Predict the structure.
Amino acid sequence: MSDTNSLFEPFNIGTITLKNRVGVAPMTRITATENGFVTEKMLNYYRSFAEGGFGLIITEGTYIDDKYSQTYDYQPGIAFDEQAQEWKKIVDAVHSAGSTIFMQLQHSGPLSQGNRFTDGTVAPSAVQPKGEQLKFYLGEGPFRLPREITKEEIADVKNSFVEAAKRAKSIGFDGIELHGANGYLLDAFLTEYTNHRKDEYGGTPENRVRLLIETIQEVRKAVGENFTIGIRISQSKVVDYTYKWSGKEQDAQIIFGTLGNTGLDYIHITEFEAWKPAFETGKDSLVALAKEYSQLSIIANGHLEKPERASELINNGHADIVTLGKGALANHDWVKRVQKEEPLEEFDPEKVLRPTAVIKNFEL
Ligand SMILES: Cc1cc2nc3c(=O)[nH]c(=O)nc-3n(C[C@H](O)[C@H](O)[C@H](O)COP(=O)(O)O)c2cc1C
């Protein structure tokens, strides 16, 4: 058996059996309608990965309510039953093509740059986000200064995640992934410099991970045992690529140890290069630390488009599944190509990202 064969073995995650260990990473494409309904373009996009052999597809970050969760204009939502019903077409198409699909549920928190429901943004604390809005997603200039979210609104956020998860389950998604990465609301709670709260949601790492834990527990209670729930975790943010947890391995132990005891099925780790040491003080990757401290199924992401690199993380027991972002965009049939030992296309943003939509005379 060659080393890369492990990528093509089945794997049980939660209550679902994946036909192989290679997934598509969640990728925002802003190709929904203005009202957050899925489009034909999205249907074709997701179906083509299923036809290309991927065992798991995780959808783009999808907003969960009509309050502060929407992040980008033309982002799809699952805030209403009507939106959910349209998603069913994509779920059915992916299933018909023999794959599995999880929905990524997103609350923007401080990094919203397009929300048709409200003007302001909320965050754990009123801290100005670093950097500028992402031009690629139709943003311009600095982010808005967020307002500190109240306790009542925190309860609303948890409820929005719960209702969205129930909608996703009801129309046939195989699981949901909470977006706990990249600087959006849940990660803003986890991150020291965006969370200055004095209540039980701020201060120690145990307090900063509390909202993530409570959300997972409430979602689990609502959807029952028979539905796969995961969370995505990163150190870096879309506006701060090099950020590292200040407590290093100790933070990893607390965060992953706590997440490991909440009824989660998996943690999806994203790092720039998933196999590299997470901190300069040690040799373990964040993927390995997540496995060690949570003992859950681990999905690894970050420049794993080379099959040998991807399979190494599975062969050494640090990850159970890998996901590809840019590698999948360049090769919707990555799995079939690798199985047939055919060459892979390099990711070229000009070729792969620009033709997806023409919105407001702006080509993506
Ligand atoms: C166009 C694009 C959109 C993305 N949107 C999301 C998203 O909605 N949710 C998320 O968690 N990550 C998002 N990401 C990050 C990817 O999931 C992934 O972590 C990143 O591309 C690194 O993986 P790669 O090296 O395989 O590309 C996006 C990345 C790209 C390129």
